[in-house]
Each structure stands twice: as structure tokens, then as C-alpha cells.
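One such shown below:

_____
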Amino acid sequence: MAGEDRSRWVKRGQPVDSDGARGCFELAIRIIQYPRTRPCRQSTSTRTMGIVSYTLTWGAIGFGIRCYQLGIMRRPIFTNLWGHGISVAFFGSLGYYFHGLKIRQRELLEQKRQELAQFQEAQKIRLDLRNQKFQELLH
């Protein structure tokens, strides 16, 4: 078996002489080429509430930071309100960006999980084929 030429039954990962094994490889290729449909997305009301909560939370953080900044400088907190507005708008836009970032990361993770599951299925099929060929060589 050590000096045996394996090219007669395996060529670039695909079996040559076994129809059953070829069918398994075609199934694995089909699984890889045509992934399952993606799960349904969040409803728009849930997504909108997420955007609102992120934006308001980060806006409140910006307001608090501006008040803290003025407190450190020992200035009156509510004299120049335009500074508070700029701080709230800036941090609110950060919250909006972070919400979109979270959604993109979740979609990417879900896609990677699906790809990993497909790869694991294909690996199981390949391992079964190798075991089958090994058993055929022994008999």
C-alpha cells in the first residue's frame, strides 16, 4: 500500500472509478455552491427601536461628557447650549454608526457560521469517502 499508485482512484480529490463516491462529491460541491437561504431579517420596528435607543444613549453620553467637561473647567453648565447640541449630535451619530456596525458584524458572523457548517459537511463526506476507499483497498 505504501508504494501503490493512488492516481488510479483519486485525482485532485475526486474519485475516478466509483459512481457512488462521485455522487457524494457532487453532493458536497452542490452544498458548497448553493448555500442555504439566509434567515429572515429583523422586523423594521425592532431595527428602528435599536437605532433610536443607540442614538439616544450615545447622545446622553455626549451630553454627560459635555457637562463633565464644563464642570472640570468650573464654568456654568447651561450657559452655552450650542456646545451641548454639538456634543449630543456628535455622540448620537456615533451611536447610529455603532448600531450599523453591530448589524453588519452579526450578518458577517451568521454568514461565516453557515460557511463553516457547509465546510464541515463537506469534510464529513470526504472523510466517509476516504474510509470507504480504504475499506475497499483492504478487501
Remarks:
- Residues 6 and 12 are 11 Å apart (CA to CA).
- The two ends are 12 Å apart (CA to CA).
- Residues 81-138 form the longest helix (58 residues).
